[in-house]
Amino acid sequence: MGTAAEYQRGSVEDVACASFKRVQEALRTLEEFSKLIGDGDSRCGLHTPTRSVSEDDAAPASNIGTSLVDPPSLTLRVGVGTTSSAARRFEQLRYRLYTAEKAVLRTRFSRERLFDQRLYLLVTASACPAGCESVIRAAMAAGVTLLQMREKTLPDRELVAQARRLRAWTRDADALLVVNDRPDIAVLAEADGVHIGQNELTVSEARRIVGPERLIGVSTHTIEQARQAVLDGADYLGVGPTFPSGTKSFESFAGLEFIRQVAAEITLPWFAIGGIDAKNLATVLDAGASRIAVSGAILTATDPCAAAAELLTNLPL
After folding, report:
1. I need a labelling partner for 64 at 20 to 30 A (CA). Which of 12, 41, 125, 203 fits?
2. CA distances from 225 to 76, 99, 240, 284, 296 (A)
3. Are residues 236 and 271 in contact, defined by beta-carbon separation less than 8 angstroms?
């Protein structure tokens, strides 16, 4: 996706939201009118039709095309036998449009916030010597507002419980929460998104679970994978691994050259990942990165708040 297309996304969503509102107002009007027709309002002389069209109704003298008919009568003839359930149908459709509108607004809000993110913290509870909650709150106090829960070994019930704890902590700080690998857990915990790898569900499969309102990130290790993730509809990319990492092992490293390739052609938000810390950050930025994802650089720091603050200070705005 090019820069022009990425900028256009916001204007398309503006049009979609405005269209939703116009359709809602139209349906609200139709709903109220159908109630008026179907409720036997004596002031208008209307009643719920229960019969089929009579010969008189079908006669030329009363045919719609040959004489003037007042609007209620016209609607009555067109809607014979249908108005009793029209209000319910209009209301259901209006609710579905309202839900879709909210999904568009939430997606747009999350994506706009995603563009502002520079530091992405990947959290594994067992990797936090000072305790998971303490580290997370310290990082958020320094300004981190995007976190990912990365737990590979917890049973599902513990995973849900942990995700809900992180959701509560991040909500307190107005931070985004993403769940690694598990779109179902992301939905149950009311997280803001899910992050998937090359061996997990596809973007389209994950989207069926999390819906249109949540973010989907994809790990990429080659420029071909990065291009494909953009075409598949990912909201952001993880780009790496850049260096050896103390929290995750890799068979090979894409390195700085991969960062240069992505920087040259991918405009979707992306985060360089893999062994990045304050010591090698300048090298990563020189290769073209403007966003990074880290784990050990903050989780294992003696002062997680200070470590996060140092990284944020050196990242471009």
Report:
1. 41
2. 58, 33, 11, 20, 26
3. yes
Q: Which residue has the tokens 């809607």?
A: 79
Q: At what angle do helices 3-38 and 86-116 cross, to 10 degrees?
A: 160
pLDDT digits (tens, 9 = 90+) for 136-154: 999 999 999 999 999 999 9
67: which DSSP letter?
Answer: S
Token pair of 93 as six digits = 């459709």
pTM attached to this predicted model: 0.69
Compute the mean pLDDT over every residue in the chain, rounded to the nearest whole number. Answer: 82
CATH topology for 117-314 is: TIM Barrel (3.20.20)
Q: Is residue 175 over pLDDT 50?
A: yes
Residues designated catalytic: 150, 219, 248
What DSSP designation does 60 have? G
Q: Where are the domains of the chain?
A: 3-104, 117-314
Residue 205, judged by CB atoms within 10 A of its CB (0-12, 13-18, 19+), counts as exposed
Query: In 10 A of CB 218, how many CB atoms?
Result: 28
More confident: 73 or 249: 249
Question: At 134, which amino acid appears?
Answer: S
Question: Could you give the C-alpha distances from 274 to 69, 250, 306, in angstroms and in order?
Answer: 74, 9, 20
| Nearest Cα to Cα of residue 304 among 123, 116, 115, 118 | 123
> One-letter amino acid identity for 224?
E
| Nearest-angstrom CA–CA distance, 239 and 220 | 5
